[in-house]
């Protein structure tokens, strides 16, 4: 394998891994902040217990999210230095702003929340959590704006040396691609958090019922509330995920038509275009015509253009069109490495885009179905004892994680062979674009990247096992283990107690 | 002053801020086996930095981000040239961050001890690694005509990297000890004070040597004065520890770093990476920077954002200002 290929695997693995923590942080943070707010407003003990139980899971997960986020920032420079130079005028400033405006906010105020339980006045303490949550949401926006600029570069002009120069920062910040991707990602994050509440809550409810424990005590209320809250959040978020996804999809048909046709394995341009339900044949060959699929007539036209008859361009036609505009072969230039002079395949890996898209939608639907089951089975104070349903819900906690990962893999792989995709709204000669083959650091060796890939992979793997173990152990124990301190400002001169700090450290 | 100079200064301030703030939490972590004799003493030491380390680490992220944002040429030359050392730093920071959060997740003593050791090890690796990278950056990396590293994976790690590593680690150890002297009570406070008294003159030497070398090569009269200030601040720190004025000693030691860093960055400007291959290949601020438009946008954002960040970070330190003391271990 050459440097390019190893570096791509490294980027893919570290990014997907990081993005397992991110949606949970984004989604669960808000839910914990809502629980904490309800406790401050009502003073009811169940809200405090919920805040502390779910807050703890939030923190265990947050630590790994922060730690793996560091790698994200540095690897643009480490393995993708040509990319860093090329996009420097736009991309770096978004990352720097994220750190300055969002990440400081998140980290600092989370520290205040963790350690402020009886140092800060109640409302200020609550405000710290909200500040941290807002910080993480702003942070997500900057990152998605940076990513969206790679998908759809705006606010720049092409300079004589072939690089983008930023001319309109506001355009970069309000890129329609970013707005669409951000809203989609945020609601998807809420599905992750909602499903977690549902799965764990149902499991505890059933266990308590089978053990004959009362349905009147605080713990019962805690689990029931968690299931109901999680269920409604997941269902509402699923509706929004579908709406924002549809909006994002229509935008993609304009901005990256090849990505969308590949998602459907639509080989020839068709009017009306059918939507593929299932595909078979040799998807792996990346020859579109080896693929056959079961389809729903006209649906794809509707998804792309809101009517049932408009033509949707197929992979084969687009491939030719791109080759005519951007070249059928990579320039014979050393900056393209092994790829110099080779033909360019503008079609992303079909198997990945096609199944990635379906996994995203399918797993999202699984979460929604589980949420509906949870709400139905707990209606009017009922507690489900159906083993398959409850264990299925627990297992389905993983579904939205898979959906999120698949969605990003689809988005990122679908952008190949470009790392910065040309913006079709700009006249051809003035477009800013960059091939992935050019982006990798020229000075590093394959051995170096392979070493880092293996080391990071092993460490990430070990940490994943420990994190899962910790969360499982913690979840099994339930809420009763949580000490309930009396928050508020302690009397002057009172000694610091370890019990309070043990909430987090 | 033009925007490029302002941003060079901003990068210098961010790195100095990182070393100043994360410096003490790295130092406290590295001193755990040295100054903490019992489990509860180690616990106390960790509690002094518990609410602060995460916010401190963001200074590193912002410092690296600012280089990417303002000087992508610098970012793109620097990181690949020290590829494996940087990966090691990242690994150190990763395991350290999760260890802080995870060590209290189970009550067994072995679990606690293991993660406490991970905090110490990760912090040492991160401190030494960042120091090595900064040392190599200010004293020279083997950069060729094309801006790429000449030689193999470790060709960037010569004596400048070693000097930088020792300088940053030495600074952090004393900084951590002084922070503990200021923030804790009981035996840890006394041991920390004794440690700082004994080691501060020694630990300052590599830092002063490093700044001095850059000064000798390319310094100005102003940076020469700054270097003298740094040297005098070592003396100030030492005398303040002797009379048990912990706050003043901590401030004195902070001045050692600030003056040394100002010497380093001030003397190096406008070169961001000197080449050990040929001075003609030196990377300068002008070659590495982004457009004036982007710098202007960032100047506005930073001008509004940074004071706010400083205000709430200062407030955090105020909230957690109380001195901590060890309590008997709860079973």
From TrEMBL, chain A:
Region of interest: Disordered: 481-505
Gene Ontology MF term list: electron transfer activity; heme binding; metal ion binding; oxidoreductase activity, acting on diphenols and related substances as donors, oxygen as acceptor
Top-rank taxon, per record: Bacteria
Keywords: Cell membrane, Electron transport, Heme, Iron, Membrane, Metal-binding, Oxidoreductase, Transmembrane, Transmembrane helix, Transport
EC annotation from Swiss-Prot or TrEMBL: 1.10.3.-
Composition bias, Pro residues: 484-493
Entry annotated with the keyword Metal-binding: yes
Subcellular compartments: Cell membrane
Topological relation to the membrane, as annotated: Multi-pass membrane protein
InterPro entries: Cyt-d_ubiquinol_oxidase_su_1
Family, per entry: Belongs to the cytochrome ubiquinol oxidase subunit 1 family.
Protein name: Cytochrome d ubiquinol oxidase subunit I
Species annotation: Petropleomorpha daqingensis
Automatic annotation (TrEMBL), chain B:
EC number: 1.10.3.-
Source organism, top-level taxon: Bacteria
Pfam families, per database record: Cyt_bd_oxida_II (PF02322)
Example GO BP: aerobic electron transport chain
Keywords per UniProt: Cell membrane, Electron transport, Heme, Iron, Membrane, Metal-binding, Oxidoreductase, Transmembrane, Transmembrane helix, Transport
Transmembrane segment boundaries: 6-36, 57-76, 82-102, 114-137, 157-182, 194-213, 219-238, 250-273, 293-315
GO MF term list: electron transfer activity; metal ion binding; oxidoreductase activity, acting on diphenols and related substances as donors, oxygen as acceptor
Membrane-related topology note: Multi-pass membrane protein
Gene Ontology CC terms: cytochrome complex; plasma membrane
Subcellular location: Cell membrane
Subcellular location, principal: membrane
InterPro entries according to UniProt: Cyt-d_oxidase_su2
UniProt family annotation: Belongs to the cytochrome ubiquinol oxidase subunit 2 family.
Name used for this protein in its record: Cytochrome d ubiquinol oxidase subunit II
Species: Petropleomorpha daqingensis
